[in-house]
Amino acid sequence: MAAIDPDRRNRHPRMLTEAERERVEEFIDQIHYSSRYSDNEYEYRHVQLPKDMIKRMPKDYFDPSKGWEHYEVHEPEPHILLFKRPINYQPPTVSH
After folding, report:
1. pLDDT tens-digit profile of 75-86?
2. Beta carbons of 36 and 45 less than 8 angstroms apart
3. Which of 5, 24, 47, 67 has the fewest CB atoms in 10 Å of its CB?
4. Using CA atoms, how far apart are residues 94 and 80, in angstroms rounded to an integer?
5. pLDDT tens digits, residue range 39-52?
6. What is the sign of the dihedral through the CA atoms of 74, 79, 84 and 88?
7. pTM above 0.70?
8. Nearest-angstrom CA–CA distance, 92 and 40
9. DSSP letters along the chain, please?
10. Are the CB atoms for 47 and 32 separated by under 8 Å?
11. Contacts of 41 (CB under 8 A, 6+ apart)
12. CA 42, CA 45: separation in Å to the nearest integer?
């Protein structure tokens, strides 16, 4: 794997506000998720967002769902986001 540039990461991600979510809602069905692939430590996937969706999303947005870490942007195509998470990731359990 190529070296990762940590300066490309979103250091303070946040969830979308309701108004921001409404602006990108029409693109949800156009998002493409790759198959998962892995090395000895992580499983990976890339997500291809519609280019018009990227224009409407705030720069500091990220939804860290299911343990995926956004670790890089594919520089020639910034609408392709790269994610990773540890192999055999288990979500935290909620205790009551």
Report:
1. 788 888 888 999
2. yes
3. 5
4. 32
5. 999 999 998 988 88
6. negative
7. no
8. 22
9. -PPP-GGGS-SS-BPPPHHHHHHHGGGGGG-EEPPPEE-SSEEEEEEE--HHHHHHS-TTB---GGG-EEEEE-TT-TTEEEEEEETT--PPPPP-
10. yes
11. 86, 87
12. 10
Q: What are 89's two structure tokens?
A: 């990731």
**47, 34 contact by CB (below 8 A):** yes
Q: Which residues contact 54 (CB under 8 A, 6 or more apart)?
A: 78, 79
CA distance 16 to 3: 30
Euclidean distance between the first and the last CA atom of the chain, given in angstroms as a whole number: 41
Q: How far apart are CA 14 and CA 10, in angstroms?
A: 9
How far is 42 from 93, CA to CA, in rounded Å? 21
